[in-house]
Amino acid sequence: FPLDFVNIVNCAQFGIDLKLINKSCMSLSSDQGFCARDPQQKSLYIINFKDQDSNSKMTIKAESAIIHPLHPQNILLRTSTMMQYINAKQKKALLTHKFSSPQFVEYFDWIDNKRALLIGDQIQAFNVETGQLEAIGTRYAAPSNIFQTKITQVQQSENNLLLQVIGVNQNNQITGYLELQNLSSNTVQQIPCVASCITELQDGDQIIPILSFAELSPNNNFIFRSVNLKTKQIYQTAEQQADLGSIPIRFFALKKYSATVLVTNTGGVYVYDIFQQKVFCNQFSQNLMLAANFGNDLVVVSKLGDLTVFRLNALQRFLSSIHKQIPVELLNQFNQLFMNSKFDEAANVVAQNTELRTKQTLNRFKTAGSFQEMNASNALLIYINTLLQKSNLANQEENECLIEILQKAGKSLKPYLQKFHQSQELGEFFFQQKLFQESSQTFLQLNLNAQAAACLIELDKPENVSLFMKQKPFQLDKMFEFGAKFGSIDKFKVFANEIFSQKDFIAQKDEILLIIQQFVANNQLKTAVQLLLEIITCIEDNDYKKQLIEACVDEQQIEVLFNKVNCPIDLVATHVKQYCPRLALKFGNREEREIILKEKKIKFDEQFIVECEASTTIFEQLIQNNYKNEALVAKMFSKFKEASVKKIQQKIERKKREIGKMEETIKELAKYAEMVVSEV
Q1: Which 8-state DSSP code applies to residue 21?
Q2: Which one of 42, 61, 519, 671 is most buried, by most CB atoms within 10 A?
Q3: Residue whose C-alpha is closest to residue 497's, from 510, 520, 484, 516
Q4: For residue 409, is it left (φ>0), alpha (ψ between -120 and 50) or beta?
């Protein structure tokens, strides 16, 4: 979706230190300005976007300051003992309220245009018009598995008070929960999530309150959910990958479009369409610290002090263009029937209007049905039965839904085969259910001939596969791949035998070699070798022999290959070195063996020199280090040298004997190799 934004100012222009850009020091309650409190200098910066002359800096002793949502010249100040509502431009107090006892306040912000909320040991609202402070809710303890909690957002909608809390778990990962208090019944719910808000949906003359919230999964995905606060109906979830390290800083509703907007510290903007269960996302910038929404604007402040206003009109036009695909009257009619649990009438509306027949509509019926027993009044059953009565299924999602229903009920698929939407996934499902005939028909309708041929092989009709192979293009590798993935590769041996039984090995060479290669690719080497040996006994062809050599990786197969098959000696020797070193000497090169022997002699001579030099170096090092008893060193060196020379001479004699034996062995092997070559 498009982003329409305007950079307004940078906080540095007003002499505001960047360290003041945080929730405790800066108030973005107004779309016309902001205020920033410097606790060290005990000063307050008041900035008015529309009236630059009214910008000011004043000295205060307050612990908190929030700017009024509509009147940026009005500031509400708070200490632990009192509150004062002032007009900064006129520099006078409009209202003062003293607490009966010192107050601990964790959260302090406006909840509407008249009231500011104070949350500490209890939840209180202060009315700046009447000067009254009243308790409106109870503060409950956080769940035991969440630590370092902080209230990030508060909202009141009629009798519902919503507190969003963020913290970390025992693994120091971001987590949180929403606390939903019903002020009339004095009940409370705590639901795991990292962002939440209450929105409203228009249903005829009724206003339906909807709770929308987002969870952050372990694999770093935002999972969006919505709940009807009246009926407790849960809508289908939607999921979207989040940027690494994402923390929600604002979550608000676009009521007219049944959507919510989530803004994160990494600059991600996620729009959750509640009815369509879709998430649209875009990226603005990095390192956002604060965000607030006012009317058609979203105001954000970055870590570098840049203050930017997003115009939400572009986003609203984008959502409007999506919703225009379905006539508003039709959508309202369906929503009203669905919200009132008139599922049969709602299903009829969908069946008669294809534009409503979407994945999102199916998910709504599926979600509603999951809270009901699987009987005639189940919302999902009503929907699927209505579609089957009016027409065939229209997409793979509906296929999967019908299959799941039939499997749960223990019913056969066969009476419904003509009702399914034809898709590759359906063909694969039939194949896995061993409905090979139905699977073949599905693939044929989709022009997937290779998969259809695999079905015929499973039906023990390999003779019919030849007809498919004559159709171009035919992908034999696709047929084998499908069979290996979903079926049994053993069935393909019957197919290969059917091809080979024609004994047309020259005319069909390309096809036969391709079949052999598929057996090799699917690790059926024994089958490949067996088939090739049968061919080579019938005809003399180097292409088949080369394929046979490549397929032989087992010692027994290789010995059979050498003893019974007239294969080129150079190919055999190369292949044996890789797969069967034990037999390598039979086909090795005499000159190559002599080079190896010579290298071993050189290596031995070098080792002898190194050992002599090493022993001499040890004693030279002792003398250089001014070892005191030089006579003792000389005596030690003499004995060591005698022992070393004797030891080395013994090693030389042993190596000579080994080399002599190797030379005799090479001569014998050379004679044997010459004999084998002459026999070949």
Answers
A1: -
A2: 519
A3: 516
A4: alpha
Same domain for 172 and 46: no
Single-letter amino acid code for the residue at 319: L
The tokens 């060591």 sit on which residue? 640
**Distance from chain centroid for Cα 31:** 37
1, 67: one domain:
yes
DSSP 568: -
Residues 101 and 165 occupy one common structural domain: no
SS3 labels along 301-363: EECCCEEEEEECHHHHHHHHHHHCCCCHHHHHHHHHHHHCCCHHHHHHHHHHCHHHCCHHHHH
pLDDT at 177 over 90: yes
DSSP helix/strand/coil, 194: coil
Q: What is the per-residue pLDDT across 493-541, written as a single tens digit (0 to 9) for each?
A: 666 665 556 556 666 666 667 677 666 666 666 666 766 666 666 666 7
What global pTM score does this model have? 0.53
In 3-state terms the chain splits into helix, strand, coil percentages (rounded to 5) of 45, 25, 30
End-to-end Cα separation, the chain, in angstroms: 75
Q: Is the pLDDT of residue 258 over 70?
A: yes
Please state which of the ranges 67-76, 272-281, 507-516, 551-560 shows the lowest mean pLDDT.
551-560
Nearest to 497 by CA among 527, 476, 458: 527
The answer to whether residues 34 and 67 touch, using CB atoms and an 8 Å cutoff, is: yes
Domain that holds residue 611: 592-679
Q: What angle do CA 639, 645, 651 make, to 5 degrees?
A: 135
Measure the CA angle with vertex 577, ends 575 and 578; round to 5°. 70
Same domain flag for 199 and 82: no
The string of pLDDT tens digits covering residues 145-176 is 999 999 999 998 888 899 999 999 988 889 99
Integer Cα distance of 371 and 632 in angstroms: 97
Characterise 204 by phi-psi region: left (phi > 0), alpha (psi -120 to 50), beta (else): left
